[in-house]
Structures are given as C-alpha cells and as structure tokens.
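User: Please run a holo structure prediction.
Assistant: Happy to. Please share the sequence and the ligand.
User: Here you go; the ligand is 2-phosphoglycolic acid.
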Amino acid sequence: MKKIFAANWKLQKTPAQAKEFCETFRAQLVAHTYFWDHKEVFIFPQNFSLDTVIHATNDTPVFVGPQNIHFEKSGAFTGENSAAFAKDMGAKTILLGHSERRQFFGETNEALNKKVKLCQELDLLPVFCIGETLAQREANETEKVCFEQLTQSLNGIDKSKRMIVAYEPVWAIGTGKVATVAQVKEIHEKLYHKMSDLNFTNFQLLYGGSVKPDNAQELLQVPHVDGFLIGGAALEVDSFMKICSH
Ligand code: PGA
C-alpha cells in the first residue's frame, strides 16, 4: 500500500509562496516514478492559494483540496466555501474535522457527518481528522472520544468508498509534543479494528501531531500507520521532502 504524506498549510502561504513551494517540489519529483509508485502526496492550502496549487501540480498525482467546506453545495451561506466549486476547480480531496475547526469554529460530529456525505456525493476523498484533548487523555477517554467521532461523523455513509482517517491528538498539534510510539501503536491498533468492525473496506489511517523529519521514520514503522498529516514541517519543501522520503 502506498504511504500517504499530507500537508496542512492552515492559514499560511500566499499564492506566490504556494507556487514557489510547488515548483520546487515538482521539479524534484515530477519524473520520479519510483516515488509516485510508493507514495501519495496531499496538499491542503488556504483557499486563496487553492487554484495556484492545483495548477502548479497538475502534471503530478498530488491530491489537492481545501481545509474545510460547507455542508451545502450552494445557497445563502455568506462567507462559506463550496465543495462543488472546489471540485469544479480541480480539487480531489477535502480535509475535514481538524481539531482547530472543532475547537475554534464549533464544528460538530453532526455537521461533519453532512460534510462527509457531501464529499462522497461529489467523489471527493475525505481526510477526516479525529483526536482527543489532553484533558480527555488524562481522563482515560481517548478511545471513547475517537470512537464517538468516528461513529457519529461517519454514520450512514458508503463504507466501500475510500476514506482516510487522520488520528491527531490535540495536545500534540503544533506543540512539539509527539505521541510516543507506544501511544500511537495502541490507538492505531484500536482504530484499525474499529473501522473494520464498522465495515469500512477501503480506509487508511494517518498520524498527525508534531511529525518532523527526525521522528517520521519510527512513527511510520508503527503498524496501521499508513502515513502522516503534517502541519509545521510541511511548510518548507526541504523538511516535507525529508518526511516523504521515508
Ligand atoms: P503539526 O500540525 O504538524 O504542526 O503539529 C499537524 C496538524 O495540525 O495537522
């Protein structure tokens, strides 16, 4: 199975900066068939840079998409972003349920369920994030929280369609605190079985939270870690490439 490397640029990189990143990245990899035979790369730019990134990578297999969408395709929703419009621009994927969306923008499992359904309707590949806060981990609620996020947000969807789930412990995002190999192993094992029990037949599990070039290798050895969702270390071509080289 191909390893997945997904860059979440958050509210960073202007179109010019995004173009520069993509041109450097593309120049090193566009003709590298071994790389593309073994890896999949996803980039989630800020929406104003989406078109630039789609065009700058359109002769590569990179999956590009927004970091959030509204659950309706169109209508009177001032300030929102449409998955249908993203698809029309050439997006192939959508990042959903990132903890910053849940934490700062009140995104609920119920709203996320509608968003996942819309992605499936439009044939956009969801990269769906789950994860517990530090308080929840300390209260021994990691499994309960993650399972609830899965069952509530993925309820009633087509389980034969490809689904990527990114486990990101909230306390490890942007903090430099990485979950230990033992912690990742334990939860990924449980998530793998939960997804199988829920009858998902085509899914991959990513780890995210302070992934860097120097911890990528050991984390990628963990069973059921199929790749990474990367924030800070995906902002520079050099560190992103180092992570992708594992
Ligand atoms: P980080 O972010 O790699 O900077 O911790 C990960 C994420 O937010 O997806």
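The radius of gyration is 17 Å.
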